[in-house]
Structure formats: C-alpha cells, structure tokens
Amino acid sequence: MVLPLTLLSIIFFGGNNFTLWIIACAVNVPVLALNLAAQPPKVTLPVMFVSLFANLVIIAVSVAMFFI
After folding, report:
1. Number of Cβ atoms within 10 Å of the Cβ of 8
2. Per-residue b/e over 55-65, b at no fewer than 16 CB within 10 Å?
3. How do residues 9-50 score in pLDDT, each as one tens digit?
C-alpha cells in the first residue's frame, strides 16, 4: 500500500529523480519475493517494516527536494 504513495511522491515532489526510483524499487523487491514465497510472519514482518521505513524516508526526501 505504501509503494504507490512513494512512487507518486517521487513523481510529483521529487522531480521524477531516477535515483529515488531505483531505491524504491530495490527496497520493495524483497517484500514481493517473501510474499510470493509464502514465508511465515517471523520472516516477512521485519522485511516489511524495513521497507516501510525506507519508503517513508524516500517520501520525506522527495518532499524536501520539492521545498528546496
């Protein structure tokens, strides 16, 4: 649910920065892989929280780039 918001913030606030796109995609690939592999929550939850934190940082960087 956070990935679309992250990508939209990169487009609208971050000036469509390619580096932010690469980081956002790379952070969310493990979440997709673990969900498709049907791993237990003990494995998936830490990865999801790290991905959530990284996405929030990317959104904050995009908004900061918009105002600077």
Report:
1. 13
2. beebbebbeee
3. 999 999 999 999 999 999 999 999 999 999 999 999 999 999
